């Protein structure tokens, strides 16, 4: 949670379907880690952890699980964009989410290799 707080500031613990919801999740389940994928890359084991509500992916080196090391946090969510393209009574109308808002609500992560490269693909509950 500290890493997410340092990276997201006033947007820490936002919900996944409203960009004006900073700290909305603190009294619920917080950033709610949801999606997890483990991969072996160049002899090391990594955990990719999707934060469903706030968004973003945390990456940990878990080669030695007793001394897991945080490696990186990435979020492609744009808090300056509205989540919905059409709003009615504060809710997204007809599930019309704004692609400019970025990735919202990582629900699943899959790791794969191709042509010697290492990749993850993320399915987002809100933005697709």
From TrEMBL:
Biased composition (Low complexity): 11-21
Chain segments carrying region Disordered: 6-32
Pfam families in the record: choice_anch_I (PF22494)
InterPro entries noted in UniProt: Choice_anch_I, Mesenchyme-surface_protein
Domain Choice-of-anchor I, residue spans: 12-77
Source taxon at top rank: Bacteria
Extent of Basic and acidic residues compositional bias: 22-32
PANTHER family: MESENCHYME-SPECIFIC CELL SURFACE GLYCOPROTEIN
UniProt-recorded name of the protein: Alkaline phosphatase
Species in which this protein is naturally found: Vibrio parahaemolyticus
């Amino acid at each position: 949670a500290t890493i997410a707080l340092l990276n997201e500031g006033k947007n820490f613990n936002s919900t996944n379907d409203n960009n004006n919801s900073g700290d909305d999740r603190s009294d619920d389940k917080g950033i709610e880690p949801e999606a997890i994928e483990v991969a072996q890359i160049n002899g090391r084991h990594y955990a990719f952890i999707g934060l469903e509500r706030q968004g973003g992916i945390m990456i940990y080196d878990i080669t030695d699980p007793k001394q897991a090391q945080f490696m990186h946090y990435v979020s492609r969510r744009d808090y300056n964009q509205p989540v919905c393209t059409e709003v009615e009574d504060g809710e997204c109308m007809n599930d019309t989410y704004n692609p400019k808002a970025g990735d919202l609500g990582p629900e699943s992560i899959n790791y794969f290799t191709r042509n010697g490269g290492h990749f993850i693909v993320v399915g987002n509950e809100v933005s697709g």
